Amino acid sequence: MRAFFGSLLWRTLLVVVAALVLSQAAAVWLVHEFVTQPRMRVGIGQFVSHLKTINAALQTMTEAQQDQFLARIVEREGIRISPVRGTERMRPAGDVPAVHLFRAHIRNLFGPEADVYVRDGERRPGQVLWVRMPGGARDFWVAFPRGRIERDPATGFIAWGALGLVIAILATFFILWRLTRPLNELALAAERLGKGDVPPPVDERGPAEVRAVTRAFNQMKEDLQRSERDRAAFLAGISHDLRTPLSRLRLDVEMLEGRVEPEVQRGMVQDLGDMNAIIDQFIDFTRAEAAEGLSAVNLSELARSCAERAMRAGVAVTCELDAVPPLLLRPLAMQRLVDNLIGNAAKHAGGEVLVRTQSRPGEVTFSVLDRGPGIPADLAEHLKEPFTRRDASRTGSSGAGLGLAIANRVATLHGGRLDLVARDGGGLEARVTLPVTP
Prior knowledge:
By secondary structure, this protein is α+β, with helices and mostly antiparallel strands. Among the domains are: 2-152, Beta-Lactamase, CATH 3.30.450; 291-435, Heat Shock Protein 90. It has helices at residues 2-5, 8-59, 63-77, 97-110, 154-194, 208-254, 262-286, 299-312, 331-348, 403-413; strands at residues 80-83, 90-92, 116-119, 128-135, 138-145, 295-297, 317-321, 327-329, 353-360, 363-370, 417-422, 428-435. Helix 9 packs antiparallel against helix 10. The longest helix is centred in the N-terminal third of the chain and has 52 residues, at 8-59.
């Protein structure tokens, strides 16, 4: 929720809504003070003057003339005037601003006992106001709609404010959507690039500043790809060129049989094998895993296949493989990951290597466990960097220090992670966690 409302879109919308609410409140107060109240005073004054005229006319008429006059008033003015009978159920109207002002006017006109009433039992109580008015020989009730003295602009103000708010929100949403959409695409492309994938160029659209950032990102991606290609070509070239002299050296060493001590010859052959293994790591490291297509892979079956291959090479491997759901993976890249982790454990730890897969909610884990000296926790992240080794912690080490770096890069490319943690009872667990996509 915090990340959701922390986006540029929702923060701007909240600011716009708050600003509009405050501006509408200020507008309502200003209109009430400088428009509604003055108009209400003028309207009440005019209506009271009209009642004063009616009262003066009734004072000079006979009852018959009064009846004819009242009939014409009802017909023309929309108010009702009826004689007071004494049986009407009246009560004083509430002292709201408009009624309070009108009450003060009629008391100045008819005396301090004059008041404004509402009649009980009406279909819409309070919507019709009554005033008792003297008219010579008898008194009269004057009934008139409440709107003659009180106009409630609340509905209009609410509609006005709501409509303005909706328009402002839609306009802000549209503008920010146009602004943030290229930024979201840029963020997704940067995330893919950080995982080792090669995203397509991001469309350069939107405001000038956003286009400039997108252009710089596309240029950076091209520069990184060019640098990666140059580095890969350099390493591949060196690795390829070393194959031929190493092969000749291997042949020469084999032909030295009987001329040197057998242990010396075996050591030379082992050194040449280590050199070839380093060259193989260089070649693996220069491969672009992102170029390989995704396909459904059963990680347990892949782990079993790699473990059987390692056993044929003389590695003691046992398997604890759960039934796991198929994952969209790059098969050759994942095979290199599994082979590197198994080979790393066999080379540096010795003894039996345990290969394990587990299915958890939303993720699948693949682990290679050994009983070697292990790795200190403060060096776990450092040892996943290329060309990094810690010989003191893993006896008999050899190689270029690329095995964990390759495994970490492949795991990151698939949206997962590689963790190097201490194994219960001693040793190391190299655990790869991969997300299960729906």
